Amino acid sequence: MLLVARKNLFSERTRLAISVGGVALSVFLIGILLSLYRGWNEKVGEYVERVPADLWVASEGATDFIQAGSSLPDGVGTLLNFVPEVDKVSALDVRPVEVSKGGTRETLDVQLVGYDPRADLGGPLEMVEGKSPPGPGEVVIDQAMSDRFDVNIGDRLVRGTDALTVVGKSAGGDFVFTQVAFVTLDTAADFLELEPPSQRTFFLLTLKDPTEKEWANDPAVKKWEEFMKKYYPEGSLIDSANMYAYTVASTLHQVLKQAGDNLTRENIMKQAADLKGFAVDTLIPGIKMNTSAGDFAPIESVQLMKFNGTQWERFGEVIGK
Predict the structure, then answer these.
(1) What is the per-residue pLDDT across 1-17, written as a single tens digit (0 to 9) for each?
(2) Rounded Cα distance, 140 and 158, in Å
(3) Helix pair 219-231, 240-259: axis angle to 10 deg
(4) How far is Cα 247 from Cα 160, in angstroms, rounded to an integer?
(5) Per-residue pLDDT tens for 206-256?
(6) Which residue from 171, 199, 192 is spatially nearest to 43, judged by alpha carbons?
């Protein structure tokens, strides 16, 4: 049987050559597509890494910045502000959108990013020309869009009956097949016709610096530093995510301690919903965790802070329960 197949295959050399060539071309095209995907993925990853945020918060199932398959209510940002380790919260509305340059029929693919300029987080990475932040009805485009499509300051990007006026150019948001453009949250809601206007795609978080002078000699911080040196010596002491992880792990330790030898899922969940006045030493003094079968939120207290010109300082008593 093999001899017959071999004979038939080599008897039609033209068909053999076409078959081999087709396979080779397919492999070549797959290689090109993989290279393009990897290049695009690296570009997007580089942008996300350069955004000066410690954490990105997205809805469950969201996998990347481009597709932006995430939808969160604005109230999530309010809740995140109550987390003691969080220093700053900034909302983002991110949507891919097709626009045209005013006066032409040429269409451009844009990754429109709505951000809050007051938070100073999530906006242009590096300004090249013009002004930032943009005002109402204004947009800051990427330099790559200007170079490729001859879009300049003063031009208009049109979508239906709405338009954005280009007021600046930035660098760092070129994803090859699309580029990032920045507007305010209000402008994004109007231009994209978001319903409801308060829905968000991501929340960017910065965490408190555990090396702040106020806490330099704090026993809890000293204890955490010793823990880091012993169990995670390569970890950064200025990466507040490490202190956040330590705080979460300390809470889990308390839950397991309450569970005792009964480590069934049912009992662990029961103990997680039965924290009473538990204080992790890395939280702000006076803030305690309390949970119940009807209230799973572990932290419902805060302490106000004000900026004294150089750093944030606490004032007043702890508020909440």
Answers:
(1) 556 556 655 566 666 56
(2) 14
(3) 90
(4) 50
(5) 877 655 667 778 888 889 989 999 999 988 887 878 888 999 999 999 999
(6) 171
